[in-house]
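Reopening closed ticket. The problem is back. First fold of the pair:
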Amino acid sequence: MNNISIRSTLVLSILGVLAITILIIVENSKKFQQQEYYTEKINASMLAKKYQSHIKNTFYADEIAIDNINDPNNTGLVGQQFSEITSGRGSLPIKLSTINPNFAAMLVQQIKEAGLKKGDQIALCFTGSFPALNLATCAAIESLGLKPLLITSTTSSSWGANTPSLTWLDMQKSLYDSKLISFMPIAASIGGNQDIGRTLSREGRELAVTAINRNNITYINEGSLDANIQKRMELFNQFDKVKLFINVGGGIASLGSNANSKAFPSGLKENIKLKDIPDHQGVVYEMVKKGVPIINLLNIGRLMTKYKLPKDPVPLPKVGEGSLYKTFKYDLKIVISATAVFIVLIVAVMYYDKKQNELGTLIIKQND
């Protein structure tokens, strides 16, 4: 024991070997463990997959009608690049990425983090641009037993629900009639520029209105963007207190402006400041004024990175795949115990080394 020193090669070697041994033990303690809300996530994603199958089997019984090149998973949830009701450019890889049914698990995660419970009232704004993401959102809402109030626009950016005979309204109506979804939009607008389809042809605007009428939805047509925004808020305010607002896509009435769209962050956001919204308009702005938490499903690439969802997957991932469901976790008991033992040993060696140095100094002084 007389030669024990923190500076001793032998002691440092022993401590090094011990540290490596502890590291191996800790690493081997890692196990796949279920994430929070595992069951709810599985249920929501299974329901989203069921919705997707219904759309394909109802509207694309003949797979020849599906664009196998731009829709490599043959889902029927990818529209055209251009059509009469196309409101702007969209990213095909992003649209393909959102077809992953596990996006519903992402929604469950965010809704639960917002603290919502079964029966809570939520407000939603959709567009036709992300039909698969709309389905995932509906699946999360239904599986969690929330009370939704939905207002949607009808037009779509490229590769969305932009076929005039198969808009998002038509998809949701089919799911509703089949009792797979329990709600329909309380109102709908044309969408697009100024929320009134300003950049569409007259034929395009008429086709959008036709889709609204054939699905028996209240038509929002107040003549201007500001008026259409206020009409949405009037409709939402008729119901019980809204606990959460979910925006899917880049609807101008929902976000208020392109500047807001770029500035407003993706995902769940609580306690947002009004000063963080550059142009003080849009349903998002009005909800923030009321103190309502926001889930913003735009800038999808950022959400995919955060939740480790694959880009443009072929084939589509299975329900339950990914870190939203399971992840490697350390056994905290082993980690804490091993760390404590190692720290105790180091402190003991340092203490003994200090005592030896003090004794050496004392002997030298006595000799003097």
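Second fold of the pair, where the issue appears:
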Amino acid sequence: MSTSRRVVVAGSFAALALSGCMVVPIAADGSPVYPTIAAGPYRTPAYATAPATAAVPSAPVPNVLQARLYPSNEIASRTGMLAGTVTNMMTGKGQFQLDLAGELLSGEATRVPGNERAGVASAYGSRGTYMNCEYRMTTPYQGTGTCKVSTGAQYQVHIGV
């Protein structure tokens, strides 16, 4: 009698733990991905055609990318490699920031209209130093380009991991 009661309790617990759960795949933007079912004699479930009412669209989340700048001429080699960040606002614009020989340069990065992979970035420091960059993103999280500083230094930039 005791063994059958344990089996019933264990079975009830397993059924309770697994009931009411449903796995719904989501896309990169957080929206649910509904399965597509081919037309045929079977009825298409309601969840395959109607969006969930509980899904609430949200604003894009900014993503911080590391930027490494490697010297590409003699003037830049005096300073060496630089490191900075690009905060991608996921709107076609971003914030660009780096330390150049103790001077903080900050500015913005913008995608080129009509070319979602290409962009330009500009930064300016408190001592009057400025930097202009052109880049191309190979993925949403990686890219390469070139940067020129008002001092004549030139760098190759690598964005992302």
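Update: turned out to be a display glitch only; the data is intact. The longest strand covers residues 115-125. Strands lie at 63-71, 82-88, 93-100, 103-112, 115-125, 130-139, 142-149, 154-160. Please close again.
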